[in-house]
Amino acid sequence: MSGVAVAELPRASQTAPIPEQDDAPSAGAWYLIFVLTLAYTVSFVDRQVLNLLIGPLKADFGLSDTRLSLLQGLAFTFAYILFSPIFGRMADTGNRKVILLGGIGLWSLGTSLCGLARSYWQLFIARMGVGGAEACLTPAAWSIIVDSFPTRLIPRAFSIFLMGPYIGGGLALIFGGLLLEAAQGWDLSAVPYLGALKPWQVVFMVAGLPGFVIALMMLRIREPSRKLALTETKPERMAIAQVWQVFVDRRDFYGNFYAGMASLVIVLYAFPAWMPAMLMRRFGASAATVGVQYGVAVLVTGSLGVLCGPVIASWLERHGRVDALMRVPMAAAALLIPVSIALAFAQSYGFAMIVATLASFAYSLPMALASSALQLATPNRMRGISASIYVFVASVMGLGAAPTIVALLTDHVFADERSVGLSLSLTCAVAAAISAFFLSRALRGYRRILDDAAG
């Protein structure tokens, strides 16, 4: 089975393999992907709209770049990583539809509450609420997708789902910038409770509304049956000791995979977090201009990259590269090294936008493939926990560390907010190099899993 790994476990507990010939996906499966992609899109609107509000937040609360980065990173990430393993285990043992339904409603409420914040610490706590609730999405969604689609279409399903961050990040910039500009001219003084809100608060309030609609759409989703081994007659939970043993036996894959993807995610989060500020500070562009232009670039190239990944992997598999699901991520990480370095030499707004566009395509290219490789290499009843560990390490480095590393370099090394582009370039180039190193090692571990499954 080209590119698909089957974890070797005792027959009593094995919840894969997946048959070579699968039925076509149902209409319900495509509806599932549609709703989950909307949910993922909205989750990134909710978490990234803050990136365009750096100016008014800095002015209203008197914040440094470092304190702002804690709102972007630590406030969200602390709760995100705290709840990720909890939701991962729940996804392996419980009803994934219920988990998703509750999480979407809670993070939408948290985003709206950000708009009611009257102090830095109130906003910090509200951001923690958003992060804790959003931790449910990846483990529950990944697990339910794999059980809803035939093996041959799992990378394609993931590529559609993983368009969400790029659509959401783009929309957050596009509509966040336009809404911020428009709200500055609104007179809400006659509206109860809303009259005292500042424009940035209005943006948060509006950003939280779509999630409630998506939560209602989730009601029509049906929980799929879990895919089982041919010898099983009912789904059996894996004990924690069995889960741990799989990680130990396959540590050459799992350890290097998590380290490599966590480093790559630094680039994915650092660019959207600080590229708008770099364009506004260095070249004097307005928030609305940057929001529309950079937002469109992220939306188009990010979506194109994540959709192209499975196409490139399929082409490589047809030419004998059965390890394509991990080979493409390694190549993408290597490509991001010179792209990130080029940002340090940007002397014009146009050149900086070209670099940002290339980076958006490159860091989105491997995401669906890496997710598919991880899920297909992992037994069914530990897919949620494997995804939650990925969320954990990626969140610590990407959501938590990436914005703050850039801010610390800007505040304490270059000591000039106009040098944020240099900080961003240095951070992303080093992270991409580390990612390429670990993913090359993960590639060897993944090939061993493929060989074991074939033999």
Secondary structure elements and their pairing?
Blueprint: H1 27-48, H2 54-61, H3 65-72, H4 74-93, H5 96-114, H6 120-134, H7 137-148, H8 154-161, H9 164-183, H10 199-207, H11 209-217, H12 240-249, H13 251-283, H14 287-318, H15 324-343, H16 349-364, H17 367-376, H18 383-414, H19 420-454
Structure description:
By secondary structure, the chain is mainly α. It is 74% helix and 0% strand. It has 19 helices and no strands. The chain is globular and about 65 Å long. The chain starts with 26 loop residues before the first helix and ends with a helix.
Summarize the structure.
With 455 residues, this protein is mostly helical. It has helices at residues 27-48, 54-61, 65-72, 74-93, 96-114, 120-134, 137-148, 154-161, 164-183, 199-207, 209-217, 240-249, 251-283, 287-318, 324-343, 349-364, 367-376, 383-414, 420-454. The radius of gyration is 22 Å and the shape is globular.
